[in-house]
Design goal:
Layout: H1 2-19, E1 26-28, E2 35-37, H2 38-54, E3 59-62, E4 66-68, E5 74-82, H3 84-89, E6 95-102, E7 105-113, E8 118-123, E9 128-130, E10 133-135, E11 147-150, H4 160-173, E12 176-178, H5 183-191, E13 197-201, H6 205-217, E14 221-223, E15 236-240, H7 245-253
Parallel strand pairs: 3-5, 11-12, 11-13
Antiparallel strand pairs: 1-2, 3-4, 5-6, 6-7, 7-8, 8-9, 9-10, 13-15, 14-15
This protein binds D-MYO-inositol-1-phosphate and calcium ion (CA) (2 copies).
């Protein structure tokens, strides 16, 4: 199944690459921060048609179309373009993220870094890969020497404190913080040891599904801010190499 998932992620990525830097229509979703372009929709359509053709019985949960064909034990969880703001502004950091769940457990997933043409992929209990190379989390144990990544939710103007206070707290504790703009890529960069940790509030299942499996298969840990287990529907996500996890929980506790 992973080969099929990778195949369609790459096909969708080609559509996105073709559209990058060209004229495309942009609409607001919930507000002026939250964009969707015609390329997001085109990418999603391609992926859904592929699933309908190859796995007609499977269910789908896709960012722009919601739930389709409900009732199967298999659910494809799709972000057709993760990093739409970057894409719309001409910043070449965005991805296609596709995870597949069986009975609510993610069994396979891929994140395609479109402009760098890199596939991150994992199947449950089989390790995580960048192309054909196995990837592993960083061995850093000290938060003070760690590079972290985060993101901000589209509703940040409604309740800025909750996100900004944590950002401030980590800025004072970690070596550095980055904000790339694609949560799926944030998970993968944590999986391959570029970042030691990643936290974010208000993520969606399609931001989390594939990336969480890839990070866990690379040896990382994904929980809530309190250290408790999460699923793809959880709203507070803490992901790390495991070694700095408790130190990150301690920082997240302060507010
Ligand atoms: C967004 C990106 C971003 C994160 C936002 C997500 P989208 O996804 O992953 O990094 O900070 O919370 O919604 O809208 O570009 O698919
Ligand atoms: Ca997303
Ligand atoms: Ca998206």
């Amino acid at each position: 199944m992973i080969d099929k998932i990778i195949q369609i992620a790459k096909e969708a990525g080609s559509v996105i690459r073709e559209g990058f830097g060209k004229n495309f229509s942009v609409e607001f979703k919930t507000n002026e921060l939250n964009l969707v372009t015609e390329i997001d929709k085109e990418s999603e359509k391609l992926i859904i048609n592929f699933i309908r053709k190859n796995f007609p019985k499977h269910s789908i949960l896709a960012e722009e179309s919601g739930k389709l064909n409900e009732g199967s034990e298999y659910v494809w969880v799709i972000d057709p373009l993760d990093g739409t703001t970057n894409f719309a502004h001409g910043l070449p950091i965005f991805s296609v993220s596709i995870g597949v769940q069986k009975n609510n457990r993610t069994i396979a997933g891929t994140v395609y870094d479109v402009m760098r043409d890199i596939i991150y992929a994992a199947e449950i209990n089989s390790g995580a890969f960048e192309g054909s190379e196995k990837i592993f989390i960083s061995k850093e144990e000290n938060l003070g020497r760690s590079l972290l990544v985060t993101g901000f939710p589209y509703n940040i103007r409604e309740n800025p404190e909750s996100a900004l206070e944590k950002f401030t707290a980590f800025t004072l504790r970690a070596r550095g913080i980055r904000r790339l703009g694609s949560a799926a890529i944030d998970f993968c960069y944590t999986a391959k040891g570029v970042f030691e940790g990643f936290w974010e509030v208000h993520l969606h299942p399609w931001d989390i599904c594939a990336g969480k499996l890839i990070l866990e298969e690379a040896g990382g840990k994904v929980t809530g801010f309190d250290g408790n287990p999460v699923d793809i529907f959880s709203k507070k996500i803490l992901a790390s190499n495991g070694l700095i996890h408790q130190q990150m929980i301690d920082v997240l506790k302060v507010n």
